[in-house]
Amino acid sequence: MNGAINQLVLSVLARAPQWVKQEMLAADPIVRACAEETLAAMISSALDVSETEGPGSEAA
User: Fold this and answer.
1) pLDDT digits (tens, 9 = 90+) for 9-39
2) How confident is the model at residue 60 (pLDDT cuts 50, 70, 90)?
3) How far apart are CA 2 and CA 60, in angstroms?
4) Residue 46: closest CA among 22, 11, 14
5) What is the Cα–Cα distance from 21 to 37, expressed in whole angstroms?
């Protein structure tokens, strides 16, 4: 994981909703899985946006 991706993931984690953070600690595996899927989608979306807005793209 390079530094840019690491910073991107950290920023997603920092702005994750409180319910996601709380449900990541849940004892119920179904609740925890839902929070994990939500967080994965947030990270995936942030990576997609960074690729389209990164250096060398038309948006940059």
Assistant:
1) 999 999 999 999 999 999 999 999 999 999 9
2) very low
3) 20
4) 11
5) 12
